[in-house]
Specification:
The complex is a heterodimer of chains A (166) and B (351). Chain A has 166 residues and is mainly alpha-helical. Chain A is 52% helix and 8% strand. The longest helix of chain B is centred in the C-terminal third of the chain and has 47 residues. The chains are: A mainly alpha (166), B alpha+beta (351).
Amino acid sequence: MLCEVCGKSQATVHYTEIINNDATEMHLCEDCAQKKGAILKPHFPLADLLSGLIDFKLPLTLKEEGRGKCPQCGMTYSNFKKIGRLGCGQCYNTFKESLAPLLKRVHGSNEHVGKSPALAGKAMRTTQQLRQLKEKLQRAIQREEFEEAARLRDRIREIEKKNEAK
Amino acid sequence: MKLNDLIYQSGEWLKGTGPNSEMVMSSRVRLARNLDGMPFAHWARRDKQLAVMSLVRPAIESTKILKTSLFIDLNELNSLDRQFLLERHLISHELAEGKGVRAVVIGEREMVSIMVNEEDHLRLQCIQSGLQLTDAWRLMDRIESELDAKLKFAFSRNWGYLTACPTNAGTGMRASVMLHLPSMVLTKQMARVLQAITKLGLVARGLYGEGTEPSGNYFQISNQVTLGQSEEEIIDNIERVIKQIIGHEENARKSLLSKGRRQLEDRVFRAYGILKNVRIIDSTETINLLSALRLGVDLGLTKDVRRQTLNELFIITQPAHLQKIHGKTLTPGQRDVKRAELIRERLKKSK
C-alpha cells in the first residue's frame, strides 16, 4: 500500500484518527507521518487482537430493536469493533449481550471481585468477602487443613447470620 | 516546580534500592478510572474533555500526596518536552501523541503521576524502586479512595470499574515489574520463561511497556487479567511468579560465575572500559553496555559504580533528555557525541 499523502513511498504507519466522532483510517509512510506528528513507535495492535475476539454475531434482538447504538454517547457496535474501545460506561450496558462473552474470553471471568467505590455499598463487600472466604474454605479442605477450615466455616456462618438479621 | 526542574532531579524509582533490587529495577501499579455519565476521553468532544478536566484537576490537587505537584497541560508542550516525559515513564505514547484536552500531574520525586484524558479519564500510576508492588498498590489505593470521595466513577457490580478498553475493566489495574535478567538471556532460558508466563495470564514487554521489544535484557512483566481477581490476588500472583524468575536468574548468575568467571568478568570490564572511554555511542549500544556493567555491579565484580548511577544513565542518555540537558535540538550524530560525554562524566563522578 502506498502512502495516502505523498503517494510515493510504502505506507508503514497505520492508525485511526478520530475527529468529532468520525473515525478515519490513515495509512502513511514514515516521513509523512512524522510531518503529521503522527509518528509513534509502532504500537502493539491490542485493539486489532481484541477486535478479532469481538467477532461475535450481534444478537438478533439487538438488531431488531435497532439498539446497535449507545443512547448516551452514540457509539455503534461496528465502530467498537473497529477501534476496540467503548464510548462510555453506558456502552457496557448497551452492548452487554456481546460484551459478556467477550469479557469472559479475555479475563476468564464475568464477576468483579476487587475494590469498589465507597458508594457502591457495603452489601457488595460482604458478598465478595463471603465468596472469598468460601474459596479459601475449599482450598483448606483440599489441603486437609481442617482446623483452618473449621475457623473459616465459623466466620462464614457468622457473616451470613449478620446478613440475615439485616 | 516546573517541567525543566525535572531535568536535574531523578525519580524515586531509580534509586536502585528496595527488595531484590539487584534484579528488580522497579515496580509499578497503574489504575484506570472514568467519571460516571461522561463519554470516555478518547471518544469525547472538546467540551466534555474540558468538563472532565475541570472536575478532576481540583480533586487530584486536593489529595494529600499530590497537594504539591506539577500540573502539565500537554497542549502547552512541544514534541521534545512530550518525548522527555515519555522517556521518564511519566506519560504514555497515547497521551504524548494524542489530541484534545489532556494533562499529567506529577507528584514529588515522580513516585506518583496521574494522566488525565488519555483513553480513560484518569490513569493513576505509582512507581517504586525494587520489588514493592504491595506498597505501590497501597499508595494507589489511598489516593484512589481520596478521589472516590470527590468524584463518581463509572462502575458496575458485575464488571467493576468500566474502562474504554474492555481488557482493563474490573480492577482497572495493571501491576508490572521491571526485571533485569542478563544471565537468563545469556544462558538462553528466556524463551521458555516467557512462554510459561503467558500461560499464567501474565505478559512480558520491553522497557516502555506495550508495543516495545525487550532491550538491554530488561523485561517488564505485568498482569493481563483485570476482572475476576482482586487487586491483592493479582499482585500476589505476579509476585510469586517474579520470585521464581528471580530464583532462576540467581542460579544462572551463580553458574556463570562458577563455570565461566573469566568470560563474565571480561564481558563486564570490556563494557566498563568502553563506557569510560567512549567518544561516540548510540542508544542501543549504550543500553547493552549498561546492562553488562550492571551485572558486574550486582555481582560485586566491581564496586566503582553505584546502581543508581546506571539507572539514571538509562534515562538521561535518551534522545529527548540529551537535548533538554543541552537546551537545543541535536541531530542523531551530535547526540551520539553528547551521549558519550555524559556517560564518561557520570562514570567519573560515580567513583
